[in-house]
Amino acid sequence: MELRKEVLPMIRSEAIKAFFFKSVLPVTVALILYCIFKSACVKNGELDYVWLWILCGLPFGLHRMCLWIMPGGGSLGGGIALFALNFIIGGVIGGFVLVWRLIVAVWYVPLTVYRLIVG
Fold it and tell me: Where would you find the membrane-spanning parts of this chain (predicted)?
């Protein structure tokens, strides 16, 4: 016996809700983070894009880290350095997640238009 799954078209409210959560919300959060951290990343009148990428990625990457590096029997300075390293690694991971979410946001624009026309 063969199982068949029917693909039901999305109704308008579901398509608009998915568009809001997948496209509008990540772009808005990225713009707000950019505005917040832009002034902190200006050095000698130039914007340091690497630190901006790390700082904007912090909210997206800290909770996705699977392993935190913990100091073991070291000094207070070593513990603070490892704590800062954890935040930098979380920011780098979050930077990649942020870029991926922005790519998905761009993809959802024509997909939502298609869903609204067909659905």
Answer: 20-37, 49-70, 76-109
